[in-house]
Design goal:
Layout: E1 8-13, E2 20-25, E3 28-32, H1 38-47, E4 57-59, H2 65-68, H3 71-78, E5 82-85, H4 86-89, E6 101-104, E7 110-112, E8 115-121, E9 130-135, E10 140-144, H5 152-158, E11 163-167, H6 172-177, H7 182-189, H8 197-206, E12 214-218, H9 227-237, E13 246-247, E14 254-258
The structure holds zinc ion (2 copies).
One zinc ion binds next to loops.
């Protein structure tokens, strides 16, 4: 385990085949979503120096399988507190009872040990989806994936923070030409689907750029996007180079990063 006075964050994998993000501060370790089997999550945690026993709590954004598939088994096996909205809970995707359920009320902040958490409502085709802003008292990290469009509410909540794990799901042209059936293309591109590279870039243009130190393109579609295209599109909004934009991929996620200074 690591110990630091600042938030540190890593992705264990990001995309439609499974998501899990680990955010730590000192000995507090929060897992956001788990789309992986317990065995696979253990393997991915080990890669970043953690075990399930090190986790303080699990937070879930919404009930889609790539975020919740491995959550029920994980919290039951390790007795972990599970934070989710009432809507996510009644979706019935946990596969049974959970030992310690804590209700998230969207837009009501709370603390888990040393980490402050703000759940923010997002437009996505789930029952009561939220995304999270996490803070260490001095700096804040915004996690923002699985949303079909950027609302004024999201801009108001997210615009002033230092780091952003931001969805850049698809390129509209690649999606249109790609293998998905028409109904799925419509869902992905719709207002309750997923952010395109360009929508993510437009959002970055509205951020307070003097504050922003780290942007990681996340939840990329393996079929309807291209990593370099996504990074280049986001970089353009910030007048920076594509290699400045971090990348979370399906297999590796991204390595530890931190908010300091
Ligand atoms: Zn997802
Ligand atoms: Zn989703």
């Amino acid at each position: 385990m690591r110990s630091s006075a600042h938030l540190q964050y890593t992705s264990l994998g990001s995309g439609s085949q499974g998501n899990a993000t680990l955010v730590t501060l000192g000995t507090t370790a929060l897992l956001i979503d788990n789309g992986f089997s317990v065995k696979e999550l253990k393997r991915r945690l080990a890669r970043v120096g953690y075990t399930p026993e090190d986790l303080s709590a699990v937070l879930v954004t919404h009930e889609h399988g790539d975020h919740i598939a491995g959550v029920g088994a994980l919290v039951r096996r390790y007795g972990l507190p599970l934070y989710m909205t009432a809507g996510t809970r009644i979706s019935g995707r946990l596969g049974g009872e959970v030992p310690d359920w804590r209700l998230i009320q969207p837009e009501h902040s709370f603390a888990i040990q040393d980490i402050e958490v703000w759940p923010v409502t997002v437009p996505h085709d789930a029952r009561e989806p939220v995304q999270f802003i996490l803070g260490d008292g001095a700096h804040r990290l915004g996690v923002l994936t699985d949303l079909g469009c950027i609302t004024p509410h999201i801009v108001r909540h997210y615009r002033r923070y230092q780091a952003l794990i931001l969805e850049a799901n698809h390129d509209p042209r690649l999606l249109a030409q790609g293998p998905y059936p028409p109904s799925l293309k419509k869902r992905v591109a719709g207002e309750y689907g997923h952010l395109s590279n360009q929508q993510a870039a437009d959002f970055l243009a509205q951020m307070d750029q003097a504050q922003l130190k780290d942007v990681i393109a996340s939840h990329l579609s393996e079929k309807n996007n291209d990593q370099q295209l996504a990074r280049a599109t986001l970089a353009q909004s910030l007048s920076t180079t594509p290699d400045w934009i971090g990348l979370a991929d399906q297999e590796e996620g991204f390595a530890w990063r931190n908010l300091s200074g």
